[in-house]
Amino acid sequence: MVVVLDTIETPISRPPRHPEKAHRPDTAVVRKPDWIRVKAPTSPLYRETTEIVREHGLVTVCEEAGCPNIGECWSQKHATFMIMGDTCTRACAFCNVRTGQPGPLDPDEPRKVAEATAQLGLKHVVVTSVDRDDLDDGGAEHFAQTIAAIRAASSATIEVLTPDFLRKPGAIETVVEARPDVFNHNLETVPSKYLTVRPGARYFASLRLLQQVKERDPAMFTKSGIMVGLGEERNEVLQLMDDLRSADVDFLTIGQYLQPTRKHHPVEEFVTPEAFRAYETIAYAKGFLMVSASPLTRSSHHAGDDFAKLRAARIAKQGH
Q1: What pTM was estimated for this model as a whole?
Q2: In angstroms, rounded to a whole number, what is the distance separating the alpha carbons of residues 19 and 304?
């Protein structure tokens, strides 16, 4: 009998990034127009930001979601921390974050985020997360602990971009009571697109979340964002603006949807810069304190500068 010993170690491969999309037919990736071109990141500050993120073992939505603005933001030492791991329990058709069964929470993560915030010298920090439907509170207490750790380590203002905490009683209250400066939750798209674009979520539950934040703390800034180019109609976007204003949301962001892979939802339209400017004008007319609408707008893009403008806009409005 011959015994063969395999002395070459086979690396353990991770599951596919999007197992739920693996067997979907490929869709064409449309060539981007000139107004969406971005430069590759090369600056020393970009590399320094990368080193700090790696040193603390942190995850950023900038990398996981393939944000086109990562070169610009990281070159200014701005990063959006994504807590509770890199694996989401949802399977949205637009999102490039890994999906599957997440691992346990890292109890030391709040401290790591706080230390990185201080080391980067951030004046305004954005903390988001994957959806954690596997947790009883959806990760609300972990958000609260992270906010508290940042407060203890830094004078930075804090913006949270949370999941919808669907069917997680008390979760919204837990995060609000931790007193972030901005509570952001994205509607992502118009109601008619939820079944195909955001099937695990419910439009009016997300809207109600934003309304509840204001009911709990009327002074807290609220923010929401959507993507366009997913096949929505213009009148649907305008109705969404009205829905957000009915929930007293202060800040609206509108950006172009960009298809991460051939397995994701296709881009139905590249909305022109002129159309974005029109949306911005209309949104201000509807009463938002702050609006950011452009092809490359993302929820956390220029978040610090926008927060300063948001506060100034409220003061100006109260002065009248």
Answers
A1: 0.88
A2: 36
